[in-house]
Amino acid sequence: MLLTLTRLTVPAALLVPALAAGAPESVPAQGKALHDQHCLGCHDTSVYTRADRMIHTAELEAQVSQCAAGPAEVDWDRDQIRAVARYLGETFYGF
Ligand code: HEC
Predict the structure, then answer these.
(1) Multiple choice CATH, 26-93, 1.10.760, 2.60.120, 1.10.10, 3.40.50
(2) Mutation test of ligand 1: which of 35, 38, 43 has the most ligand atoms closer than 8 Å to its C-beta?
(3) Which of 47, 55, 74, 75 to probe ligand 1 with, by most ligand atoms within 8 A of CB?
(4) HSE (CB half, 13 Å, CA atoms) of 32?
(5) pTM (2 decimals)?
(6) pLDDT tens digit string along 36-53?
C-alpha cells in the first residue's frame, strides 16, 4: 500500500465559517473544503489519480461514504457526501 502521510498545512478553521454561514459556494467548493479538512490525514490526493486506483465510476459516493463513516469518523449527511464525491469526481477522477 503506497500511502503518503500528509498533514494539513492550511488551518481547517479558515475554511469552515463560509460553510457554517451557508455562503453561496458551489457544491464542489464545499466538497473541497470538507475533504481538505477531514480526508487528508491518511492519504493525499494522489490515491485518486494513481494508475491502479480503485474507483472508476459511481462507486465514488460509496467510497466517500465508507471513508467518512469509518476511518475519518465524520458524521456527514448525504449532501456532504455528495459534495465531496463531486469535488473528487470533477477534480481528480474526471467524471
Ligand atoms: C484513517 C485513514 C483514512 C482517512 C482519514 C480517509 N481515508 Fe480514504 N482511504 C484510506 C485507505 C487505507 C484507502 C485505500 C488505499 C489503498 O488501497 O491503497 C483509502 C482510499 C480512498 C479512496 C479510493 C482511492 C482510489 O483508489 O481510487 C477514496 C475515494 C477515499 N479514500 C476517499 C476518502 C475521503 C473522501 C475521506 C474523508 C471523508 C477519506 N478517504 C479519509 C484511508 C483513509
Answers:
(1) 1.10.760
(2) 43
(3) 47
(4) 13
(5) 0.66
(6) 999 999 999 999 988 888
